[in-house]
Amino acid sequence: MAPHLSASTAVGRDVTVVTAWFVLLGVLSGVLWWVLVSPAEFTKLPSGGSMGEVDLGRRFNADGWYVVIAAVFGLASGVALTWWRSRDPLLTSLLLVLGSAVAAALMMVTGHLLGPGPTRAALASAKVGARVPERLDVDTFVIYLTWPIAVFLGALVVLLGKGADGSD
Question: What is the C-alpha to C-alpha distance for residues 21 and 14, in angstroms, rounded to an integer?
């Protein structure tokens, strides 16, 4: 009975550590994303807002930085967590999927909370000629998949490195 309890305790510890890891990295990466992105800005016009060429180019800035940050932290997480917890590949895979989804969501939420507020509301209340920053966001949902893809690539590096027999 004691080995069952210790295995259960080990799994619980693994779940706690992996969850805490991804929560911390999700928030930290959201802060880093907010710091690195200089949002595009609209200029308030009498009939709405307009964005110049330079700002149109900066719209992709948020997407690019999200992908870079998520890829680096995701790859490092996949390598570190799989190396640390590879005794049960199925549980490790499940924890990585759930954890990377948590990190992706927290990165987005943190960036939204720290970044500029809703653009439409700010434009509506701005004076003509004022510059209004665009909300920190990504253009397509697919970009949020960077976290899980990078985590799985990191895990794959470790699992392939260990070989079929589980040795290094």
Answer: 10
Give the domain range for residue 95. 41-161
Q: Does some domain include residue 167?
A: no
Going from the C-alpha of 55 to that of each of 78, 83, 122, the distances in angstroms are 35, 43, 17
Establish if 23 belongs to a structural domain. Answer: no
- Locus of tokens 């976290």: 147
Specify the pLDDT at position 125. Answer: 86
pLDDT one-digit tens code per residue, 90-125: 888 889 999 999 999 999 999 999 999 888 888 888
> Looking at the predicted structure, is the pLDDT value of residue 1 above 80?
no
All residues at 6 or more sequence positions from 88 whose CB lies less than 8 Å from its CB, including other chains = 11
25 within a domain of the structure (yes/no)? no
Residue 75 lies in a domain: yes
The pTM score is 0.85
Burial class (CB in 10 A: 0-12, 13-18, 19+), 33: buried
Q: Is the pLDDT of residue 4 over 70?
A: no
> Is 155 within 8 Å of 96 (Cβ atoms)?
yes
